[in-house]
Amino acid sequence: MTQVRITSSTPQLSRAAAKASTPLRPILKSSSSSALVGTARSSQDAGLDLDGNMGTPQSPRKRQRVEFDLNITEIHEVGTRSVEEIKREIRRALDRHDRGDDEDYDMLKETLSGKEPSYEDDEDEDADPALPTKQCQELKISLMSLGTFSPRLGRSCDGLVKSVLQCRWLGRDESFAKIYVQFLAALVSAQGARLTQVLSSITERFVDSRPSDWAVPSYPDVSREVVQERLHVALRYILQLFPAAKSVLEHLIGTKYPFHDESKRMHLAYVDNLLRLRSYCPDLATDIMDLIISRLVKIDVEMQMDLDDMDDRLTAMVAISLKSSRANGDDDEEDLSESDTESVHSGDSEEENTRVKLARDNIEKMDSILDTLFELYTPTFADPQSDEALEAFRDLLSEFSDFILPTIKSRHTQFLIFHFGQKSERLMDAFCGTCINIAFESHRPLILQQAASAYLASFVARGAHVPGHIVIKIFEVLGYHLDRMRSLYETSCRGPDVCRYAPFYALMQALMYIFCFRWQDLISSVPDEVDEDDLASYLDQEIEWEPEIKDIMRRNIYSKLNPLKVCSPVIVDQFARLAHRFRFMYVYPLIESNKRLRLSQFSAGTYSSGGALRDLSFDMNDESWQRLGSFFPFDPYQLPLSKRWVEEDYLVWRPIPGLNQDEQDSDSGGDDQDDEEADVEEGTATDSENGEDE
C-alpha cells in the first residue's frame, strides 16, 4: 500500500505582521526598489502569510475568495521509496549527464515534465488502479528533491529546467501547486540567470482562460478563479523574494502581450491578469497602464481604419454580426454564422466575411477592455475631490499626452479621460490646462498643437457636465491666443494658407465648434419673450452676448487670414446659420466671395517657388488638401457594451426648429428639412447599429 506522509516545517506569519511588512500605497503611485537577484528574502521578509491568508490580489471584478496555503510542504516517502532514495537517483542522473550519459537524465526529464500516461488503452485487468495516484506522488517528491539540487541546474541542465517549467502545474492539486512554487523560488535563488525564464513561464500563462489550457488528466477540474489565484500567488511570492525581478517583469509583460489579431478572449484574459498584477505591485502600476492604453489605441486605430474602408453594406454586416454575437453570447473565435451573412447578402465572398469578422472582433476587444477600465477606475473617482482621484487623473493625463493625443485616428480610448475628467471642476481644469499648454507651446509639432485644440474644443462643446462659466473662460482663453496669432501672422500674410497658419485655423475652428454646441452658455441676457426651453424662441432676437465674445470672432473672421475659407465647410456652414439667425454676425457675403477665391494662389508651395502655379503637382480644382480637417474626438460614443458609462456625459446635437426658414444666401439648396444636426457630427464606427442614440 502506498504510504505518504506530509508535514509542515515552516513557521507561520501572522496577518498583522504581513500587513505591517506591506504598507498600503496610493493607487497608481510607483516607487523604486532594488536588490540583488541572488539574495533571496525569507518568507517573512516577503510579506507573505504562509498560513493560507496571504492577502492575495483581487481582480477589479468581484471574485470568489480563493485561499492558497504556501506552507513549505515536505513529503518523506512515497510507496516503498524514501526521499533520500529519489535524491540519490537524481544525483546519479545529473552526475552521468555531466559525463555525457543521458539515459537517466532523459528519464528524469520525462518524469518532471508532468506528462500523464494514457490508461484508456490498458487492457491488463491486473493493472493497479492506484497507479495514477502513485505517479502523481512520484512527481511531487521528485520535484521537491530536485529543488535541493538547484545549484547544479545551470546551463548544462537547460533541457531539464525547460521540462519542469512546461509542466501543467496550475491544473493539479493544491499541494502540488505549493511544491511547484517553492521549486521556482529555490531555482531562482540558486540560479539568478533563470529569473527571466521563470517569470516568462508565468506571464505566458496570462492568456489562459479555458479549462483546456490548464487541465490535467486524472486530476479534478480546477476553476479559472483558482488557477489565477495560484498564478498570482506564485508571481507575488517571487517578486517579493527577489525585488529586482520587477525590472525583468516590466519587459516581459510587454513582449508577452497578445498580438493585435489575437482573439478577444486572449486579450481580455491578459488585461485582467495585468490588472491583478497591478493591484499588488504598485512599482509596475504606471507601466502596466501605459502598456494597456498604448495597445488599446492601436486596436482603436485599426478598427476605425477598417471601418472607414468599408462600404455601407459591409458596415451593416458588421453591425448585424455584433448584434448576433451579443445575443447568442458567441465566443469571438467563432466564424460568422450562415444566418449572419445570408441576412445581409447571400453572395458574400469569403474575403468579405473575413473582413467583417476582423472588424467585429476588434470592436468587441475595444468594447470589453474599455468596459473593464471604466469599472477599474470608477471607485477611485467616487470622491472626485480627493487627492487619490487627482493622482489617478494625472496618470490618465500622462497616458493621454503620450499615446492618445499623437494618434489622430483614435476614436474611443479618449473617452476614459472625457468621462472621469467631468467628475469635478478640479479635474476639468487639469485636462483643459494640459490641452492649452500643448496647443500653445511653440516647440510642439504642429500636428500635436492642432490635436490639442480639437480635444479641448470637443471636451468643452460636448461635455454635458462642463458648466457654463468654464465654457466662457475657455472661449476667452482661446480667443486671447487667437488674437496673438493673428497679430503675428498678419504681417506676412497674403491670403489663407493652411500650411503656414495651421495653429490659427485650428483655434478658429475650435471656437466655431464650441459656439455651435454651447451658444446658450455664451449669452449674457435675452429679451423677456425668449423661453430657455424653446430653442426656436431665440431666433431673430436681440441677444446680448458675453463681453468680448462677438469682438473676438469678428476680428479674426474678417482678418487677412480668412479662416472661413480654410476651416471645415461643414462647421463654417453651421456657424453661419446660427450666427445669422441669432443676430450674432452675418458672414454669408464673405462666404460667397470666398467661392471665387482659389487657395492654390496662396499656398506655401507658391511662396517658396517664386510663384508659378504650374509647378504645383496638385489638382487645381481640388482644394480639399488645402482645408483643415474636421476631427473632433468626442463625437458620440458607439461601442455597445461600454457606452453605458458615458451615455450621460456628452451633449447630443439639438436641432432648432425653423432655423433655415427665410434664410438668405444659404447653401441648403431648397431643402426644407432641418438636417444640419447630421452635418456637424462626424460619422462613427458603429452608427449603423446605434444610430438611435442620436
User: How would you characterize the largest beta sheet?
Assistant: 3 strands, antiparallel
- Overall pLDDT: 80
Count of alpha/pi helices? 27
**Helical percent range?**
40-55%
- Cα-to-Cα separation, first versus last residue: 74 Å
The class by helix and strand makeup works out as mainly alpha
**Global Rg:** 33 Å
Q: What general form does the structure show?
A: elongated
Strand order within the widest sheet? 1-2-3
SS strand fraction: under 5%
Oligomer: single chain
Low-pLDDT sequence parts: 1-69, 119-128, 331-346, 605-618, 663-694
Total E-strand runs:
5
Structure description:
With 694 residues, this protein is mostly helical. Among the domains are: 4-117 and 129-243, no CATH class; 472-694, no CATH class. It is 50% helix and 3% strand. The protein contains 27 helices and five strands. It has helices at residues 15-21, 83-98, 103-112, 131-147, 158-165, 174-190, 195-203, 224-241, 245-255, 264-280, 285-308, 312-328, 338-342, 350-377, 387-404, 415-420, 425-439, 446-462, 468-490, 502-518, 549-557, 563-566, 569-581, 588-594, 604-609, 676-680, 687-690; strands spanning 4-8, 73-78, 81-82, 523-525, 544-545. It has a three-stranded antiparallel sheet. Strand 2 (73-78) and strand 3 (81-82) form a beta hairpin. Helix 2 (83-98) packs across helix 4 (131-147) and helix 20 crosses helix 23 (569-581). The chain starts with a strand and ends with a helix. The relative contact order is 0.07. The model is unreliable at 1-69, 119-128, 331-346, 605-618 and 663-694 (pLDDT under 50).
